[in-house]
Amino acid sequence: MSRRTAASQANAGAPAGPSRSTPVRLVDVARLAGVSTMTVSRAMRHPEQVADSTLRAVQGAVAQLGYLPDSAASALATGRSRIVAAIVPTLMNSVYASTVHGLASILRGAGYELMLGDSSYDPSTEAALVRSFLGRRVDALVLTGVEHDSQTRALLARHEVPVVEIWDLTTQPIDMLVGFSNVGAGVEAGRYFAAQGRRRWAFLGTSPQREGRSGKRLRGLREAARAAGLAAPVPAFVDDGMSPAAGRDAVLRLLDSHPQIDALFCANDALATAALRAAADRAIPVPTALSVLGFGDFDIAAHTSPALTTVRIPGREIGERAACALLARLEGTDPALGRVDVGFEIVGRESA
Amino acid sequence: MSRRTAASQANAGAPAGPSRSTPVRLVDVARLAGVSTMTVSRAMRHPEQVADSTLRAVQGAVAQLGYLPDSAASALATGRSRIVAAIVPTLMNSVYASTVHGLASILRGAGYELMLGDSSYDPSTEAALVRSFLGRRVDALVLTGVEHDSQTRALLARHEVPVVEIWDLTTQPIDMLVGFSNVGAGVEAGRYFAAQGRRRWAFLGTSPQREGRSGKRLRGLREAARAAGLAAPVPAFVDDGMSPAAGRDAVLRLLDSHPQIDALFCANDALATAALRAAADRAIPVPTALSVLGFGDFDIAAHTSPALTTVRIPGREIGERAACALLARLEGTDPALGRVDVGFEIVGRESA
DNA sequence: TTGTACGCGTTATCAC
DNA sequence: GTGATAACGCGTACAA
């Protein structure tokens, strides 16, 4: 491979002004500073181990050359990429966006970069992403949810990498876990309806096969209905991307076919907003005749009319805690806490 | 560095079951398949250059060992990381999320991974991200907006990397550009108001210093007002994170201090939703007494009441086109088109 | 405190 | 069609 050699020759022939292209390596800095590469490396990584005078010389050379260490080479030499990968179902949902934001800010503060993938709620896409990330030798992996492909599990078993699963709970996590009980959220939603004297509940979300966490919320709602001695909630599923348009149609169908429904729990606030609109279209007063409860506490929830009562999930906190757990493991300082339940909270506003 | 050696020895001593830890390298596959490392490398990258029988042998060994090529090593050897970095102001806004999604899906299809950063609308954070990404030797960079730190520009000048700026237009792009005219959007918003006979306009957004694109929309609105022979629009700025709560207060203050306002252009739909709510709070009928125009066409825009009239930006398309432009440059096949104006469109619904 | 020598896992070259 | 060899740029023992 004579790429480098050729470039060097080209440089040698050229006027070689101060602002050349990329090829600035450790050696170049070392030469300019009049020291060895090792000293430069140390000066950048452990400045305290180097004499003040040489340190200044190195820093000067670095600045003059605009040297930027090559992290690929560094990764190869150390076996650590300082990259963490995260897979979320979608970025289009502000709660996952908060989680990603929380993750990224903590990690970046510790010198790690975040590599992001969205699985579109598809387990095999998740597996493909995991494979790709593992190939990039990421130092750790964040996975949304606790249900994964057998292929994903096999991959993870082979390449022992720290893993944090987020946004759900399970008794058998792959490794670490930061989430909350989705079943519990469903149960609390039901109790909330029961306390209001609602007797005929419905649920709007993605189908359980497609998204386990939504299914668990439905399961919780069912349990609460049984406990309250009420009929099982009527489920309605929208699978094409949780778009408000599809959601609205689904709610319209639901209200038309089951006019006696007096409470509706939606798997996310976008759907709940659509439900509010559908109720308005049918002239059904909310919350008088119909209680609408959302999930996620999206930005807009407080500003719909009526303002949306919803289940608030600390999305950003999930990201931050996951990042901290990973860092603890990666830096090997504090013992990493394996399992965190961040909980949730029903924010009572006007719609329920 | 005897990490590898030590590991090998440990492996040699252990039972060495089929599902060992990571250390599976090209050599291991080569040994098992009875060929050289070069042949394995070729079998994976250019299968057509290798005999069918050896190909099968290699594939078998790869499968049996669960081999995953180390892209850091590959990056070092080839000089290409197959990573593209993108910097957006925030992920909390679904339009940028679409852009990121568009970028990621096209890039992944071509074997590139996306590394993401959010600048929080802060130029110096952007510079820090650019520095970090450059250190990672990303193959290309996507930057939101056309205004950048001098430090950012210096960095980019030194390390010649393909760059695409998105979400705005300029006559002097750093390199490639995929966006639309923010000034133009402001002008069209004004024309829309003028056509409705609105005479006293207002603008709600972030301050121009903080976010150039929002400022350009205001500038466009001003131009339109002048052209229509009307007074300059009343500006109101919310700088603390575009939160609906802050937005609502700002609108309340605006409406109270300038009761004659009959049209309001908001820099994003979250703000517009807050404005809708504020108008309801003051019992101001929309759109009869007040026309509210949003920006971004967020998911929820169609389902507020009244449904939000807004400026639709093809966020996803911006991402996709940017990705295509990059790929064209990186793969060197088609000539990359340097400048794309994707335009925008006012979606007339109920609020204006 | 600083330098020498070699290895990290992969690929390009060029000969066979 | 296949293999030996030498990089790619950096970090770590170990010696000085």
Would you give an account of this structure?
The structure is a homodimer of 352-residue chains. The model of chain A is unreliable at 1-20 (pLDDT under 50). With 352 residues, chain A is α/β, with parallel strands linked by helices. Chain A has three domains: 16-69, lambda repressor-like DNA-binding domains (434 Repressor (Amino-terminal Domain)), CATH 1.10.260.40; 86-180 and 316-338, Rossmann fold, CATH 3.40.50.2300; 182-312, 3-Layer(aba) Sandwich (Rossmann fold), CATH 3.40.50. Chain A has helices spanning 3-13, 26-33, 37-45, 52-65, 71-78, 94-109, 123-135, 150-158, 182-195, 212-227, 244-257, 269-281, 315-331, and strands spanning 83-88, 113-118, 140-144, 163-166, 176-179, 201-205, 234-237, 263-266, 291-295, 309-312, 339-341, 345-347. In chain A, β8, α12 (269-281) and β9 form a beta-alpha-beta unit. In chain A, the strands form two sheets. A six-stranded parallel beta sheet of chain A has the order 2-1-3-4-5-11, with helices on both faces. In chain A, strands 7-6-8-9-10-12 form a six-stranded mixed beta sheet, with helices on both faces. At the A-B interface, α5, α6, β2, α7 and α8 of A face α5, α6, β2, α7 and α8 of B. Chain A binds a DNA duplex (16 and 16 nucleotides) through residues 1-5, 25-27, 35-39, 41-42, 45, 49-51, 54, 69-79.
